[in-house]
Amino acid sequence: MARLATLLRDDAKLRISDSGDGIAVIFQHGLGGGDAQVAQAFPSGPGLRRITLECRGHGASGLGSRRPFSLEMFADDVVAAADQAGLDRFVAGGISMGAAIAMRLACRHPDRVAGLLLVRPAWIFDDAPVNLRPIAEVARLILNHGPDKARAIFAQSETAARLQRDAPDNLASLFGYLDRPDAAPFAQVLADIAADGAGVSASDAAALGIPTLVIGNAMDAVHPLSAAHMLAAAIPGATFAEIHPKALDGVRHFAELQAEITTFLQTYSNFRSLVPS
Question: Is the pTM of this model over 0.70?
Fold first, then answer.
């Protein structure tokens, strides 16, 4: 069972989930996700300790009053969570937005990050990547029209039709944003993060000297397989793995994802030093 804690940042109360014992991995959720998303993706076997901070406005964490929201803000919150958990060094990882946060942590805090797990990355080095435009579109509709009218407009849009054909899992996530009970206030999080970047460059990535696993899958317009390939190519010695598309078979997707993460964490003997004594 997860151990829960609260982190106070400015006027925001943020929830930390800490489960398992072993190699310390800070693994972050995607935009709009939370601890439940991470629990589905991350292996729960012995020898692993998984810490997840639910970012501002996600899960049980409050929004707080600081604006704009940014990946820098979320990454700084994760560092504070690591401090509170007593972690000097850890493997950093995450899904989509969580992968961008992990990249920022590795580049800005190289003394603390021992390895990287980058699952379905959506950002490479640019702000507001083209693949995040559907999220920006949904955010703009909510901010301009409110969730109910925004849902009706988006359902008839060219974007929705394209995703229904090419990436139905992405479309389901976008409707999930529209159907959230807090869709109106959360729209600002969506807008700010979709317009942001991790604040790392190709030269930052090239300077990384830590074990890295990059995982991608096809049939995903928001997290294109090409982005995962490009990120893996930019990080020296990175391992790339393609897993089954979640849009085709979620059970197989998560089984393959957990297997890849487990193999990666068991491969490098230096990760064993991340087990608290």
Answer: yes
